[in-house]
Amino acid sequence: MLTNTLTLGEAMAGYMNGTVWLIVAAFLFARAFSKTGLGRRIAYSFIRAFGTRTLGLAYALALTDLVLAPGIPSGAARTGGVLYPIVKSLASTYGSEPGPTAGRIGTFLMLSAYQVHAVTCAMFLTSMVANPLIAELTLKTVHIQITWSGWAIAALVPGLLCVVAMPYLVFRLTKPEIRDTPEAAELARTELSKMGPMTRNEWIVFGVFIMVFVLWVTGSRTGLDPTVVAFFGLCVMLILGALKWEDVLGERAGWDALIWFGGLVGMASMLSTLGLIPWFSKFVGSHVAGWSWLPALGILALVYMYSHYFFASLAAHVTAFFVPFLTVAVAAGAPPYFAALTFAFFSSLCVSLTHYGGGPSPVYWGSGYIDIRQWWTVGFVASLLFVVVWMGIGPFWWRALGLF
Description:
The protein is an all-alpha fold and about 400 residues long. It is built from 20 helices and no strands.
């Protein structure tokens, strides 16, 4: 604005963007799950059903994350508000504390929960804060819209394969001393008994979540915008009292995201409007002429993923690299939708690498159950699994869907 590059209206355009407001709405959904206790109830229900063995306990936590992911977009919110307190409680139940006893069960549960979290972040448009931004950048860069259902269907097969494989992989790598956990199921029954039957507000949040989920899935047919659907659900919760206006005002993380992403989306839009992205696409295209698009996309995806060793935020990674890498891939001849989804999924999967890669990382790392060598080793091995599944098996699924 100071240099007259943008007018006031152009500079503020990002704050009128529906994607930015979808991010805010998703944070408020996270608050509803946390405030009513519905998230904890779901977790303890899975633990009661599957938690009699150590590996089953990890799958119960994985299923909890998978169920909550579409409605709680903040990894930090899912971790700090629901999963981590339960994981810590389970470890303590078996006398597994940071230090000499960490290997009993605590190390395994912490690492398994964290690595599964990387997968669930990649599986839904609303499961990670930067995912809606990715959809918006894709629309601005290659003029292709990624819908909620389109994202979820594309991620379904590789995502579920990784959710199934990851706890077992971490189990083999960490070798927990305790293998049977009957006390965990009893703990879950006790906690559920303390919580009592589902409250009115829990039923409201549950019903609204199912309604919003169905409308998101069918959005491509009904024409309903995901942001409109999300705010309709929020209005229902406010009217029925499951959320209070004070909760909306107090959601600092959501309003913080509004300020940051509104500016980022506005700038990304103007980069295209002013011609920088089309120019960059032509410039790169002239340098990759003659390359086969498939190996070019594969190399770019690997660089994109492992460059996250230099980032402490998924949003920062997406903001810095998504558009340039997508532009290069398309210039090399890669199908735009296929390329966009590839980078979109690896934008979340890369959080598995380090103990500072995203919001939940310091929470699990700060627990003291995992040393840095073990964390980076498991993270690297997990990344190899992601590469094999999402780049080796995923394309066959996407081909069957007709994405390229």
